[in-house]
Amino acid sequence: MPTTHPGTRAGGDCFPLALSRYKEVIMQLIQLGDCFEEIAKIPDESVDLIFTDPPYADRYLPLWESLAREGKRVLVPGGSLVTLYGVYRLPEIITLLSKHLSYYWCCALWHQQLGYFQKTNVRQTWKPVLWFVKEPQRVHHATLDDGVRPTGKEKQWYWQQQSESWAFHFIGSLVPKNGLVLDPFVGTGTTAVVCKKLGVNCIGFDNNPKQVEVALRRLL
Known about the structure:
By secondary structure, the chain is an alpha/beta fold. 28% of the residues lie in helices and 28% in strands. Helix 6 links the parallel strand 7 (180-183) and strand 8 (201-206). Helix 5 (164-174) packs across helix 6.
């Protein structure tokens, strides 16, 4: 694992830490490992926002209920889970997340390149951004547009990389100063990069060593 800059860590047993330790300094922590094993080490009610772009294959569907269950534990009251997902399995994902969290809104990330689904003969122009919250629900953010248009094609780090603009849109609105964002599928680190630019704490996990290495390079 490569050496990281001050404020960024990779690997090692970093949990549990006292909640105050998370918010004493702005940090971006990238951890190589199984996301649910690492989430289990995070203190209760310490995360303001879970923000992620998970794998879409059908074999990963069972992960969603586990993510919602752990989200309910680690999120602060009124905290949010915001996630991208494809249209095709949307009903199942909403059902699984709703077992532990409350549906708040469905936003849209508009595509720069159109996707085509031959099976349904539909040309897709947007991708759903599901927004769930931990009860009690409260409106603690400024007025937020529910549609985001990427400012540019950002695929220089990975072919499935999402643009920083959609992350700025939600993290900048939903996370307080010195708050904490969790990305359980951090990939090449877009969430952590945006959190660093916003001055927000971030913890990210991924089980792909190559993607973790890219994420760490982006934070240097």
